Amino acid sequence: MSKDEMSHDHITGDFQISQKPYWKLLLQSLFLICILFVAESMVIFLVEKPKYFWIAIVGVIIAFLILKLSKLKLFQFSRITKKQWLIIIIGFILANGADYIYFEFMPTTGNEKELEESYRNVPLYLQLIAIGILGPIIEEIIFRGLLIKGIFRGAPIVGGIVSVILFAGAHGPSNIGEWFIYGFSGFIFVIAYLTTKRLEIPIIIHMLGNILATFQNYFW
């Protein structure tokens, strides 16, 4: 492979999560996205009812077991390199720096207001589990792993663009500014995924941002 080809592969993220025939991977990805969407919906809904939150946890475990049975290579489970940690730090600073600048001049987004209101009486540890840990894992599997490398296998740039748009739309933006702020975070996650070829990297960036936001909303 030439240097130009290697460079192109690095930029476009030319790696696969499965060698299955495309139609099988497509159907499997769509099915898993539906399962994970239901699991995240349970987490978001039931975290407001701590007594029943265990049902959401069971739902997430079942979803992850189905994901494991699919035999898709979504994670590497290997040591994170110094370069990858640098990407995590830069991605975190860029995404959250943009959030900070936006909210200095603009009101809180409708999505943020709804979360703050819904979670007002929810214990901090449950908020951290739901928003800081489970949310980022599920969303990155859906919007980065399954969407880009499953549904759009072989066309990661197109998949990345669709991923950014759908990710922003999923957060309920009500104006151009909100579309931009959520889309920018999605763009950071896409770049982190395609350049490192590791889903763990955008998950960590996403987690750090959500954990920071959770602490800010809880204490301030």
Automatic annotation (TrEMBL):
UniProt keyword list: Hydrolase, Membrane, Metalloprotease, Protease, Transmembrane, Transmembrane helix
Domain CAAX prenyl protease 2/Lysostaphin resistance protein A-like span(s) in chain numbering: 124-211
Top-level taxon: Bacteria
Sample GO molecular function, one term: metallopeptidase activity
Keyword Lipoprotein: no
Regions that span the bilayer: 25-46, 52-72, 84-103, 123-143, 150-170, 176-194
InterPro entries: CAAX_protease (IPR052710), Rce1/LyrA-like_dom (IPR003675)
GO biological process: one example: proteolysis
Enzyme class: hydrolase
Entry's EC annotation: 3.4.-.-
Protein name: CPBP family intramembrane glutamic endopeptidase
Organism: Staphylococcus haemolyticus
